[in-house]
Amino acid sequence: MTADSMNAASQTASEQWDLVIGPKDKWYDLRLAELWDYRDLITIFVRRDLVATYKQTVLGPLWFFLSPLFTVVMFTFVFNRIAGIPTDGIPAPVFYLGGTTLWNYFSSCFTGASSTFVANANIFGKVYFPRLAAPVAMILSNLFKFGIQMLMFMAFLFYYRMQEGSTLHFTPFVALFPILVLLMGGMALGVGIVISSFTTKYRDLTYFIGFGISLLMYATPVIYPSSAIPEAYKWFVDINPIAPLIEMFRLGFTGSGTVTIGGMLYSAGFTLAALLLGTVLFHRTEKTFMDTV
Amino acid sequence: MSTVIRVEHVSKQYRLGLVGSGTMRDDLESWWHRVRGKEDPTLKLGEANDRSTVGNSDYVWALRDINFEVQQGEVLGIIGKNGAGKSTLLKLLSRVTAPTIGNIKVKGRIASLLEVGTGFHPELTGRENIFLNGAIMGMKKHEIARKLDEIVDFAGVERYLETPVKRYSSGMYVRLAFAVAAHLEPEILIVDEVLAVGDAEFQKKALGKMKDVSSGSGRTVLFVSHNMAAVQQLCKSGILLADGQVNHIGTADEVVERYLRIKDAEIQQCIAFETPDAAPGNENARVMRAEASPQHITVEDEIHLTFTLHNGSNEHRIRVIYDLVNMHEQIVFGSGTLVEVASGRAVTTVCTIPGKFLNDSIYSINLYLATEDMRPLYEHLHIISFEVTDVKRGFAYTGKINGVVRPELKWVTVD
């Protein structure tokens, strides 16, 4: 380019460009409108996940039911029958199925989101689309699986309610269920994409997440109720933002759970903060992660 | 005419080597500098990206201060050796990664055929993959639905539309993938060597489509290829990249010619020495001259390999044997002869490789000298190398013709 044309270029700097590809964007530009623009892609991703998962299996979607079923049988046997951990007066299978259904939703969303960059490196390396479409679609397809598993939970719930002397009952808090699901998905997405932003270069976190998520389950009232925790360790559950969501779920569907307004607000605040931080970090990472992944 | 792409002072730095604690230290250091509003120290590092020499720095500049503009409707060829920065430039343009410094300004939608079939899922059917692939490239569902018939027709896969693509032949797979991409109707299309795949008929279609895209609808095409004949045929203008910098911008013919000149300088087509003492070899035999001629060899030319040897042994007959190897170190063929040469004297022997026999590629010669009873005297691998270039063909197929060799064979059609 000659000096003249450079001058001409700077004079026409006010020209309208549809896109400027530069080293960095403004951190507060979350580009959510662009994501919305690609909603068709998100729905197709969800379909792909659901269709492809169980292709070439004999039992197909039955696997959605089988794995939680086996888990519940195992948990009931080990934690309830052998270890004698109380279940808040709720029949053990209902208690565990509710807990694991919700927990599995969280943990699969979380592990999925935290491996976004590494798992999609191949496709991200060839074409541009809003990178957030991948984890968002993943959350949605997990939501679908969760919905199916909730049907099984409801079947269990009603079966045990019909038993004589059952104390199971809905409370008005059941109306909060959609918000619980939203918060849980949002939290998993937010924290997950924070992690995924860090793992593109340094894989150390990946190993930590692998066993961290299974340890986290024991720090969350999934296989025990909050009410069974000794006073001295209560703080441990109090700082866990997932705990109020699980307890609220139990309170709504079975009538027993320990949860405070403060706990719920804490969860909601944590989710929002995680989503905001996650999106900012994610956008920062997506620009150049292909160079380091 | 308006400018649809403006590349301004674009540079891209890569870090070489392994990620480890040293990387972390550099990251922290550059972060600390940025926090204090100082210049990032890692940006001062780095050297031109010459892959063949070992550099001192962990950082290299894959692109350095690139500036150019592309006008609407232009078909621009981007050429350069491997490692010149073509792929990096395309990655920046298609937003796979971001530049380290500088800006690229774009008007309109860019779609890239960096690698066709991106995101194809083997378990999904052809139809499902058309939608998936189209959506990844930024099409809306209804846009794809509207063009579905056209895409299927172009790819010629009607029968297999409901079959998972993992059952497709590789040709069908590529055709389907290209078909989706070709019907995107982006304002700017980036094409990277896709024409190297597919059969002749399909290439014709693909090329036709590319021409339509640029001439018919005023859309812009960036075409990256190693195939100079295709670049000359398709592009009006071109950019030559060398070591991450713009070497030349001009018409396609100009740029191609310049590229070939640069390449010539690197291919050692001839070595020659006045005296045996300076020549490579040992006390038994030395190679005073090895040459492939003519200077520019096309697939149609006869090639003469000339060897001048000095005999330092007591033998009076020497076997001159060579293997012709291609870039993949495959031996295309070997040949040899027995020459009479008195001890202490030199002799010249010439081997002729017929024209219309080798394919377009870079070849090198492994020379072996031996006694009559095949005792090795001296061997010299890759003593010379030469490139055989393609010629403009009379028909539309400009892709690479398959095969290690490309002999002209006799065909007779009988009823």
Keywords, separated by commas or semicolons:
heterodimer, A: 293 residues, mainly alpha, 14 helices, 67% helix, globular, disordered N terminus, B: 415 residues, alpha/beta, Rossmann fold, Coagulation Factor XIII, Chain A, domain 1, six-stranded mixed beta sheet, five-stranded mixed beta sheet, 8 helices, 24% helix, 34% strand
As residue ranges, the low-confidence spans of chain B are none
Q: What is the 3D shape of chain B?
A: globular
CATH architectural name of the largest domain in chain B: 3-Layer(aba) Sandwich
Q: Write down the secondary-structure element order of chain A.
A: HEHHHHHHHHHHHHH
Structural class of chain A: mainly alpha
Head-to-tail CA distance between termini of chain A: 35 Å
Largest sheet report of chain A: none
Write up this protein:
The complex is a heterodimer of chains A (about 290) and B (about 425). Chain A has helices spanning about 5-10, 30-35, 40-55, 65-80, 90-115, 115-120, 120-125, 135-160, 175-200, 205-220, 235-240, 245-255, 260-285, 290; one strand at about 20. Residues about 1-15 of chain A have low confidence and may be disordered. Chain A is mostly helical. Chain A is built from 14 helices and 1 strand. Chain A has one domain. Chain B folds into 2 domains: about 5-10 and about 65-265, Rossmann fold, CATH 3.40.50; about 270-390, Distorted Sandwich (Coagulation Factor XIII, Chain A, domain 1). Chain B starts with a strand and ends in a 26-residue tail after the last strand. Chain B has helices at about 20-35, 85-95, 125-135, 140-155, 170-180, 200-215, 230-235, 250-265, and strands at about 5-15, 45-50, 60-70, 75-80, 100-105, 110-115, 190, 220-225, 235-240, 245-250, 270, 285-295, 295-300, 305-310, 315-325, 330-340, 345-355, 360-370, 375-390. Chain B contains 8 helices and 19 strands. With about 425 residues, chain B is an alpha/beta fold. The radius of gyration of chain B is 26 Å and the shape is globular. The interface of A and B includes residues 18, 21, 23 and 51 of A.
